[in-house]
Amino acid sequence: MKNNKLAKLEAIRGFSALYVVFFHMLPQKIYVFGINIGFLFRFGSEAVIMFLILSGFVIKYTWEKNSNKTFKTYFLKRFVRIYVPLLFIFILAYVIKCFAEGGLANPDVKTLLGNLLMLQDVISLKPNVISATYMGNGVLWSLSYEWWFYMLFFLLSSRVKSTKLNKYVNIITVIATISYLFYPFILNRIVMYFAIWWIGVRFAETYLNNKTYTFSAIKNYTYILLIILGLLGLNLYINFEYTKTYKYPLVAFPFVELRHFTFAFIAMFTGVLWNKLNWFGFDKLFGIFKYIAPFSYVIYISHHYLVVEASYLSFINNKIVEYTLYFLLMLLFSYLVEVVFYPKIKKRIMSYYAINF
Question: Which candidate, 80, 68, 27, 60, places its Cα nearest to that of 350?
């Protein structure tokens, strides 16, 4: 049985995945008794940032629990976890496109290659992006960050003494943010965002050392995040003209980076505060979402094709019924891929390379 605190992480993961779906699926205006409750589902970016923090926790936790810390084992486990479900999604995207066009569609090999190499980002919202996300699936931007976080984590954890690790991360993330003021691109953007992912790592350290989550324990890292927030505030001031370029400036450069880090900062303090309150009300609010967690990754990466841009049930002349079916089919597809097929494929790959999992 999972530790209660780790079960809470699962619940948050499941909730975040569904929240992103509703963010993309629901209209901005939903009136109930004359009150617009649609704004409650307008924080999809924040849900993605929550994913990144949870990822940092999980990777640090599994790294410390695993005795085999060779690059081969680490790389293969991370590769299988990210790419096996993702390949299902790429195939799904192409099949749906062929269906929509009534024949063989252009597979957009160049963009596909960019996504396979984890070089993708939302090209319409950020400057100097190398590759667009495959077939318009905007959420895939976070996978490139996630992948390079994995690689950077291994490099630092295997080469830097544990006593100096946090200091190294502080230095490289601040330097990356400073450089971001002058020329934002994939490298400094990912290293800068590593500071958000590292919040999860810091929380995992506290958990593994059986220490208490306190405000004093996160004080030093608070200063680092405040420095980054200050620099991103300056970045917004310097590049404010860009807000007039993008259609949705709140989710685009140079505002979105400040938005992401502000939420990460709030999330860090909320986690400590809620822990002090013994997670009062958590299970009632989020407990049910732990049942979604086992297939939340595929929900996250498939909902664009199966729900948001779906049209394969457009013959149904009732939008509520149509989108309810899209949603249910997405859940079924995600469950089959991540809970049924993925473990079998993973087992075969790991057995082939004689790696325990």
Answer: 80
Q: What angle do the packed helices 44-65 and 186-208 form, to 10 degrees?
A: 60
pLDDT digits (tens, 9 = 90+) for 156-182: 999 999 999 999 999 999 999 999 999
- 315: DSSP letter: T
Q: What is the pTM of this model?
A: 0.95
* Residue 341, both tokens: 């097929």
**Tokens 């924080």 found at:** 43
143 and 300 Cβ atoms separated by less than 8 Å: no
For residue 65, how many other CB atoms are within 10 A of its CB?
A: 8
Q: Tell me the C-alpha distance between 300 and 8, whole Å.
A: 19
Total Cβ atoms within 10 A of residue 144? 23
Cα separation, 56 vs 196, whole angstroms = 8
Residue 151 CB burial class (10 angstroms; 0-12, 13-18, ≥19): middle
Q: Are 281 and 69 in contact (CB under 8 A)?
A: no
What is the DSSP code string of 203-271? HHHHHHTT----TTTTHHHHHHHHHHHHHHHHHHHHTGGGGGTSSSGGGSTTHHHHHHHHHHHHHHHHH
Q: Which two tokens stand for residue 103?
A: 């024949």
- pLDDT tens, position by position, 35-59: 777 888 889 999 999 999 999 999 9
d(CA 250, CA 243) in angstroms, rounded, equals 8
